[in-house]
Amino acid sequence: MTLQTAGIHHITAFVGDAQRNVDFYAGILGLRLVKKTINFDAPEVYHLYFGNEQGAPGTIITFFPSPVGRKGRIGAGQVGVTIYAVPVGSLTFWEQRLAAYQIPVTLKQRISESYLSFADYDGLRIELVEREEGPLSKWSFGGVPTEHAIKGFGGAVLYSNNPLQTAETLVHTMGMEHIADGDGYSRYRTTGDLGNIIDLKTTPIPLGVGGAGTVHHIAWRAKDDSEQLEWGHHVQSHGHHPTPVQDRQYFNAIYFRERGGILFEIATDPPGFARDEAPDALGEKLMLPSWYEPHRAVIEENLSPIQIREIEVKQG
């Protein structure tokens, strides 16, 4: 059986201050905070999830905020750029909105598409691209109307320490189709309508250093637990070394580092974020897995409070 991922499930990054992270992704980009939990491996650190109205696979960006963590450096072995898809005709709205918040933007061209390029408060690189594919988001917040709201991922730009080996993994392990070359990148497509376009820089660049402002890993979609088990065998048969299945509460995950140094995850679409909160109340409470509930008081005391708030446009 040939396995083919539908595309990106989620992207996880390191950032600094948690409230500034919320202000940027919810307050300025208008995404919904769909889950407020902790890093299961470091419970003194938040794990914040942002996406569309339900946090559907293909829309989810997640963060580990740490105000005392080191600053990272974007480079080889990482996702270099996180790309969001917006409805056709929306780039002007976003250019004006970002300018109103004094966020510098540049217009870039890559393989016959135009991208609005900027960085978040920690230096994480983001691009917006207009795409017909993918359903409109139903979430509106902070002055972002649904007709211009971010749909989810357009894709990502990968920086590899060994582009030929990463290309091999994308095609022969992940099942992507190579569809174009240009401007120093190779382009690959998956079958989904969000998170389905991957651009791989074709020349190596200096190695990245993990820390605030860098992506920790990129996760690809598996339909369910059964398919994920197939993925584990499939990945191993291609010479990689996947981890055992990890319970992440809202999906199950396996991880492996491809030969260009990028950490890949394969995550299940179910069960999703409504497993422990009502759909209309996602992200409102700190949710803990059962094994951390006895320690809730200590965990909450160690986390700085955060709130979803509208961000005033800066004057002058």
Automatic annotation (TrEMBL):
Nucleotidyltransferase recorded as keyword: no
E.C. no: 1.13.11.-
Domain VOC per the UniProt entry, residue ranges: 7-131, 152-269
Keywords: Dioxygenase, Oxidoreductase
Keyword Oxidoreductase tagged: yes
Listed CDD domains: PcpA_C_like (cd08347)
UniProt feature coiled coil, ranges: none
Enzyme class, broadest EC rank: oxidoreductase
InterPro entries in the cross-refs: Extradiol_RC_dioxygenase, Glyas_Bleomycin-R_OHBP_Dase, Glyas_Fos-R_dOase_dom, VOC_core
GO MF annotation list: dioxygenase activity
One family name in Pfam for this protein: Glyoxalase
PANTHER family xrefs: RING-CLEAVING DIOXYGENASE MHQE-RELATED
Protein name, UniProt field: Ring-cleaving dioxygenase MhqO
Lineage of the organism: Bacteria, Bacillati, Bacillota, Bacilli, Bacillales
Protein encoded by which gene: mhqO
